[in-house]
Task: inverse folding
């Protein structure tokens, strides 16, 4: 009987420092770049406390166990890059034999469950009573993979026990097994090794499988070495035992070529965009992290540039997504050719690209790079028989003035892209401007306040009478929007209306005004007040809604107000923006019986000719 466990859990680490093998035995292991971790990953892209291994048992009555890996530490703090297990992003995963864990583009780990009995069969002496040996099989004419004294004068077996060991499991193993003494002489090859490595005896320690093993003898901890070797386009994992008592170096090789090819394919997929074949966001963020560290050390400037297109949506609407995909592929090829050795590009999202320009001298040099990139987009693209012209624009953020971290540089470069749409200068690129960004931040905060106001009924209407001075009577009521914030107080309509018009909220706000005014007018009529038209101002955005007429009809039906008591007030610029559309809407409203009023007529592009 033996008290040894049946299986051993092996964790193979590959990072920027070395390749290491760890036998997992403890209940938990912390993993990360911080030196206090149980398992240290030597890679600055990896988080300080990147992951945690936890031993789990299916039942207290069962001795077997497995390990589960968690993203982050046991306090719930997640890693920056996350975990990729066999190409899939995950927060928690129960490890299985052969699983591959990616911590970053250059750091990974493999998990194996190795049979203890297999290790005994390979590396421990066997009991004589377990086997019977025929002298004929050793000394006869039958073929043998053992190297005899005539082939190698330094080779000899001390006892038949060693011969039994080598003619048992090793002879039947499909994996190459090789023994070499501490003088560098090959003493044993199993059949698989003889077939795979036919010249290994002649080449000796110069053969790729044996090279360096003697030199490693003094540096190996625990008498075991795990390494990866390549031979004729095949890749092997080589488990090496240094048996000092018998002065033997024994290697057990496993062909992992297909696994490595799959691993390389998964790695490529994880870090590349399938459409353009360019690196993706994950890859770019890692490269930017490294570039920032180098720029900080060498006191250099780097630039992050977002590239977007003004008219690609029109291409999609006109020719479909297949055409736009072909456009993006062609653009990716052009952009790649436009970069110098200090530049790199990645596909970001949708139809955006992001560019990293390292070791930049000044802002003028960056502007030249942006101009060169955009110039590559000039000229027509021949796509599916169509000649298309794509117009790009770029937003730029610089290290260190616009940010000293990955997130801040990316955020500010994207903000610069949006700022470029609003700038008055006729330039296809824009540098990040903190003042403009501050205004955008304030606008965003106010927009959020508008959402809250609409949701929590902070808006209300006041009504201004319209008088006929000659008859000294009220002829209509005009509805005016007001906003009472619980903390700020009353907010002037001079600020409210322009702010709402800059956001997508102007349409739902206009709908609320329209319905509230119609409901109030109906209540006045029900209270016995003589019917009067109620006037409601419509914004340009609201007037251009395709369902405007249907929406007004629905509100009138909902509130019970007759159409003759509703007056829509429009500015001159509103109806002049699209005259054909305006004429169609106004005719439909007139047929419904809704009154129309023009405000500020003659102050802009309008004339009496437009009233015909």
Result:
């Amino acid at each position: 009987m033996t008290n040894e466990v049946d299986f051993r859990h092996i964790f193979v680490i590959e990072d920027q420092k070395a390749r290491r093998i760890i036998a997992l035995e403890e209940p938990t292991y912390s993993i990360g770049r911080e030196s206090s971790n149980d398992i240290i990953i030597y890679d600055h892209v990896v988080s300080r406390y990147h992951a945690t291994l936890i031993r789990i048992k299916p039942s207290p009555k069962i001795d077997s166990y497995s390990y589960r890996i968690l993203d982050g530490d046991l306090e719930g703090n997640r890693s920056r890059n996350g975990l990729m297990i066999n190409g899939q992003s995950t927060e928690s995963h129960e490890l299985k034999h052969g699983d591959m864990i990616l911590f970053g583009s250059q750091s990974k780990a493999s998990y194996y469950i190795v049979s203890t009995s297999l290790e005994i069969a390979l590396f421990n002496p066997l009991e004589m009573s377990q086997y019977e040996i025929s002298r004929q099989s050793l000394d006869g004419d039958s073929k043998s993979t053992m190297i005899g004294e005539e082939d190698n004068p330094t080779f000899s077996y001390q006892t038949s026990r060693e011969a039994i060991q080598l003619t048992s499991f090793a002879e039947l193993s499909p994996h190459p097994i090789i023994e070499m003494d501490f003088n560098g002489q090959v003493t044993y090859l199993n059949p698989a090794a003889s077939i795979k490595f036919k010249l290994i005896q002649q080449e000796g320690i110069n053969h790729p499988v044996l090279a360096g093993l003697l030199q490693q003898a003094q540096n190996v901890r625990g008498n075991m070495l795990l390494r990866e070797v390549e031979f004729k386009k095949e890749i092997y994992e080589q488990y090496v035992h240094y048996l000092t008592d018998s002065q033997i170096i024994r290697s057990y090789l496993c062909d992992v070529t297909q696994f490595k090819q799959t691993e390389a394919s998964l790695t490529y997929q994880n870090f590349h965009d399938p459409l353009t074949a360019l690196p993706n966001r994950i890859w770019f963020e890692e490269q930017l992290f490294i570039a920032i560290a180098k720029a900080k050390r060498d006191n250099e400037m780097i630039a992050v540039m977002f590239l977007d297109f003004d008219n690609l949506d029109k291409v999609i609407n006109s020719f479909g997504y297949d055409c736009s995909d072909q456009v993006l592929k062609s653009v990716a090829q052009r952009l790649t050719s436009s970069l110098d050795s200090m530049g790199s590009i990645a596909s970001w999202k949708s139809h955006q690209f992001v560019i990293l320009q390292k070791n930049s001298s000044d802002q003028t040099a960056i502007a030249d790079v942006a101009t060169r990139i955009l110039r590559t987009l000039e000229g027509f693209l021949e796509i599916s028989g169509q000649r298309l012209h794509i117009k790009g624009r770029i937003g730029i953020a610089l290290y260190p003035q616009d940010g000293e971290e990955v997130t801040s540089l990316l955020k500010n470069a994207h903000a610069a892209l949006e700022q470029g749409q609003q700038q008055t200068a006729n330039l296809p690129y824009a540098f990040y401007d903190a003042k403009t960004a501050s205004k955008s931040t304030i606008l965003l905060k106010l927009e959020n306040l508008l959402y809250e106001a609409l949701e929590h009924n902070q808006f209300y209407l006041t009504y201004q009478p319209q008088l006929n001075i000659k008859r000294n009577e009220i002829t209509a009521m005009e509805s005016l929007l007001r906003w009472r914030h619980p903390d700020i107080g009353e907010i002037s309509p001079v600020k409210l209306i322009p702010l709402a018009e800059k956001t997508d909220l102007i349409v739902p706000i206009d709908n609320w005004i329209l319905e509230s005014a119609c409901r109030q007018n109906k209540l006045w009529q029900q209270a016995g007040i003589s019917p009067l038209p109620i006037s409601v101002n419509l914004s340009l955005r609201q007037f251009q809604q395709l369902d405007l007429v249907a929406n007004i009809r629905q509100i009138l039906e909902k509130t019970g107000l007759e159409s003759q008591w509703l007056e829509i007030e429009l500015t001159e610029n509103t109806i002049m923006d699209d005259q054909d559309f305006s004429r169609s809407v106004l005719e439909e409203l007139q047929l419904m019986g809704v009154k129309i009023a023009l405000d500020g007529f003659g102050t802009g592009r309008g004339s009496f000719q437009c009233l015909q």
About this structure: Residues 1-5, 117-168 have pLDDT under 50 and may be disordered. The CA atoms of residues 293 and 549 lie 59 Å apart.
